């Protein structure tokens, strides 16, 4: 077992390493999380945190099944069920996001607004709004790096 000093020293080195590479790590994490967040976005009425929770639970199901298979020396064929559940769940989430997006479009191709309980008019992101938002986020990331 490692002593307390070596654990604290290794954590300090890891924190220093993460601090020195914060710009690079921020860009890599945003390129990973933003597309997944866009895929998990269904509508304005369902919080993205809920979809991330479902996604995390399904991934946890796969990892937990793998650990139980290793621990109790079970057949690896049992891993097929949680993987199929993960694929089915993610597929249903993506399908629901596309169905909701298609149902909100008018005949002229514009996205309709929906009324949020506090009375504001909230519009889903169209492709032009997405590009504007990406430009703003890139400027914010560059400003934070400097």
Span of the ends, CA to CA: 42 Å
Largest sheet, described in full? 2 strands, antiparallel
How many structurally independent domains?
A: 1
Unreliable residue stretches: 113-122
Major β-sheet strand ordering: 1-2
Number of E-state strands? 2
What overall geometry do the principal axes of the alpha carbons give?
flat
Q: What Rg do the Cα atoms give?
A: 21 Å
Which sequence of SSEs, written as H and E, runs from N to C?
A: HHHHEEH
Please report which band the strand proportion falls in: under 5%, 5-15%, 15-25%, 25-35%, 35-45% or over 45%: under 5%
Helical content class: over 70%
Overall structural class, as computed from helix and strand content, comes to mainly alpha
For the residues shown, what is the average pLDDT? 82
Task: State the helix count.
Answer: 5
Report what the structure shows.
The chain has 146 residues and is mainly α. The chain has one domain (22-145). It is built from 5 helices and 2 strands; from the N terminus they run ααααββα. The protein has a two-stranded antiparallel ribbon with strand order 1-2. α3 runs antiparallel to α4 (80-104). The longest helix is centred in the middle third of the chain and has 25 residues, at 80-104.
């Amino acid at each position: 077992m490692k002593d307390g000093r070596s654990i604290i020293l290794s954590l300090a080195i890891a924190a220093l390493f993460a601090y020195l590479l914060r710009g690079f790590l921020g860009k890599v994490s945003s390129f990973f999380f933003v597309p997944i967040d866009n895929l998990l976005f269904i509508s304005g009425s369902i919080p993205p945190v809920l979809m991330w929770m479902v996604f995390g639970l399904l991934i946890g199901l796969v990892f937990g099944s793998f650990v139980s298979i290793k621990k109790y020396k079970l057949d690896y064929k049992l891993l097929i069920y949680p993987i199929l559940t993960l694929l089915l769940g993610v597929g249903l989430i993506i399908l629901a996001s596309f169905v909701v997006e298609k149902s909100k479009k008018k005949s002229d191709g514009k996205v309709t607004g929906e009324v949020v309980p506090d009375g504001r008019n909230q519009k889903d992101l169209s492709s032009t709004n997405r590009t504007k938002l990406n430009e703003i986020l890139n400027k914010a990331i560059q400003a934070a790096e400097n």
